Amino acid sequence: MSLHSRHHLTKFVEKIDENIPIVIFENSQDYEIKEELEKKFKNVRFIIPEKNLGFAKGANLAISQVKTEYIFLNPADVFLSNECLNQLIECINEFSDFAMLAPTYRDETIYRNYELYSSYPKLHLKVAKKFGIKEVDIIDGTFVIKKSEFNKIGFFDENIFIYFETWDLSRRITKAGKKMYVCDNIKFDHLGGQSHNPKFNYEATLSRNWHFNWARFYYFRKYHNYFYAFKKSLPVLLRSFLKSMKQKITGNKKEYNIHMAEVKGILSAYFLKESSYRPYEISKSKDKKNL
């Protein structure tokens, strides 16, 4: 999954074995990078939509066209070493009793890519010790999933533009009685907020603040109720509104817009509106054919 991420894509593709098919869903209309990489790498195929579909719809479209049994879903701001990829393949060859499997962040001091709420029994398997496999409740971002499990459980919830879509999928996997695991001994680096071209940093911040708060409310409403979601989001709404008013008084228009993006995302969710905010100006190529 990519959006204005050409500065990462070549480096990422170069690390993947040429026998492994790669589908890149580019949510901007960057036909130049499509032509460049498809010409250079025979295992690469680009999908470019007419407009930015977001993560959920984009991933669903890409997944529907994948023919392999295992799908490795990866955003553009994740750095995967050859060691990480080889270990994942080795792990899958030895351990296949899962719906979703993920490596773990090398640095978990700020954030980790999974949540563990339950107490699961330790896996007494040689492969579990080798790769540090443990069962978890939620996996976020980068993971391997079986296409057959996707077909049974359903793809990503397309009401969500971005954020919390993997949390939603994890909840449905658990509800279906399937298993999710992370591998503590297989590590990767998450660059965090660097998936896009730096010139879009301001637009990306607006997008993150709006969509994170909209999706958070939607997720809580979906799995709890409206009042629960309202209670969770109200402190954020009040805090963001006060911050925006402070920035308006000081004349800092950019900071005002950044905080107001949070306010507007929450209010849109309160009124049950669609996740409709689109901050990016997508530059259209002269060649609009999606070959």
List the helices and strands and how they pair.
Elements: H1 6-14, E1 22-25, H2 31-40, E2 44-47, H3 54-64, E3 70-73, E4 78-79, H4 82-94, E5 100-105, E6 114-115, H5 126-131, E7 133-135, E8 138-139, E9 143-146, H6 147-153, H7 165-175, E10 180-190, H8 201-223, H9 226-250, H10 253-270
Parallel strand pairs: 1-2, 5-10
Antiparallel strand pairs: 3-9, 4-10, 5-9, 6-8, 7-10
Helix pairs in contact: 8-9, 8-10, 9-10
Protein traits:
2 domains, Spore Coat Polysaccharide Biosynthesis Protein SpsA, Chain A, single chain, alpha+beta, 291 residues, 14% strand, six-stranded mixed β-sheet, 10 strands, disordered C terminus, two-stranded parallel ribbon
Structure description:
It is a single chain. This protein has ten helices and ten strands. With about 290 residues, the chain is α+β, with helices and mostly antiparallel strands. The strands form three sheets. Strands 3, 4, 5, 7, 9 and 10 form a six-stranded mixed sheet that branches. Strand 1, helix 2 (about 30-40) and strand 2 form a beta-alpha-beta unit. Helix 8 runs antiparallel to helix 9 (about 225-250). The longest helix is centred in the C-terminal third of the chain and has 25 residues, at about 225-250. It starts with 5 loop residues before the first helix and ends in a 21-residue tail after the last helix.
